[in-house]
């Protein structure tokens, strides 16, 4: 029985906006085909928040992340990061993709992979060494720094990708279905890793996932997208205790209520439901 209503989240009034997505629209055009992937998306992510985005397959989640990351031009609307309009990959952002196998360089060691963006950022050598060491320790991979990616499990490779993003000291960390390709146990461990890094480093995280349980477990807020052409269906506040662990949190009645609510929204989205404008 629901005792506390679940509803649209209040905007984080107190938090400074780290990310502002305003009226974002993306239409793909080419080869005589036009696809309106994202119709009109507006939302804010406050500094230090961990926000998850869920939506049906093809809802435009990857398109949205690519626009935020400055890898894709939006058709209209804008993305503003820390007050600056995004027109290309911004310096304060790091992205972790689903395909860790393709995002790591196989000929480089773990340490070299993590260090590479820092070299590009022209971080001095001693500072680079410290950042790489700290990031590898944070993801539990200090021992594997001289290994090559192919010598590691999928979960460990994804930890390397996370370490690389963390070492870069981003203000905003974008994660695009980062755990979709790992087994359930590894996924649970990586979810806890993301929460602990988020709490420890104070980084703002925008996490895209297909998995409703994962979104509710990780986020303080879940933004549910409609099916394509995409708009925000609802922003759900996750009012679960901040101290989360896989067993206790997932057994809470409130967790079940929130998961049920987000599940219903995603089902509605699949059947083409759109919010009243
Ligand atoms: N480069 C492209 N050219 C044309 N259409 C595209 C392109 N990339 C994506 N699309 C279309 O845009 C829509 C949204 O795709 P997108 O990959 O962003 O969705 P998604 O929510 O990330 O999907 P999934 O959850 O299945 O990964 C889809 O209809 C897709 O076919």
Automatic annotation (TrEMBL):
Domain annotation ABC transporter: ranges: 19-252
Against InterPro entries, the record matches this protein to: AAA+_ATPase, ABC_transporter-like_ATP-bd, ABC_transporter-like_CS, ABC_transporter_ATP-bind, P-loop_NTPase
Keyword Transport included in the entry's annotation: yes
Q: Which UniProt keywords apply?
A: ATP-binding, Nucleotide-binding, Transport
Q: In terms of domain of life, where is this protein from?
A: Bacteria
The molecular function GO annotations come to: ATP binding; ATP hydrolysis activity
Pfam families, per the entry: ABC_tran (PF00005)
Say if the entry is tagged with keyword Transmembrane: no
Specify the protein name: ABC transporter
Its taxonomic placement starts with: Bacteria, Bacillati, Actinomycetota, Actinomycetes, Streptosporangiales
């Amino acid at each position: 029985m629901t005792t506390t209503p679940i509803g649209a989240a209040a905007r984080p009034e107190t938090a400074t906006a780290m990310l502002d997505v305003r009226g974002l629209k993306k239409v793909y055009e080419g080869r005589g085909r036009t696809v309106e992937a994202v119709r009109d998306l507006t939302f804010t992510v406050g500094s230090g928040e961990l926000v998850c985005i869920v939506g049906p397959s093809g809802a435009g989640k990857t398109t949205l992340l690519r626009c935020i990351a400055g890898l894709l031009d939006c058709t209209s609307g804008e993305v503003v990061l820390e007050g600056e309009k995004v027109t290309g990959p911004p310096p304060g952002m790091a992205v972790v993709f689903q395909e860790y196998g393709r995002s790591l360089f196989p000929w480089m060691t773990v340490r070299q992979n993590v260090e590479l963006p820092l070299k590009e950022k022209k971080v001095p050598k001693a500072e680079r060494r410290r950042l790489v060491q700290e990031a590898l320790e944070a993801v539990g991979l200090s021992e594997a720094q001289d290994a090559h990616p192919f010598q590691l499990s999928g979960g460990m490779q994804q930890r390397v990708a996370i370490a690389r993003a963390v070492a870069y000291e981003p203000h905003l960390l974008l994660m695009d279905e980062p755990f979709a390709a790992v087994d359930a146990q590894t996924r649970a461990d990586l979810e806890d890793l993301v929460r602990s890094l988020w709490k420890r480093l104070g980084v703002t995280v925008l996490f895209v996932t297909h998995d409703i349980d994962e979104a509710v477990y990780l986020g303080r807020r879940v933004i549910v997208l409609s099916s394509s052409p995409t708009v925000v269906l609802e922003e759900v506040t996750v009012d679960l205790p901040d101290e989360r662990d896989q067993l206790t949190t997932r057994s809470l009645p409130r967790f079940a209520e929130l998961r049920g609510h987000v599940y219903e929204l995603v089902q509605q989205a699949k059947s083409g439901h759109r919010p009243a404008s």
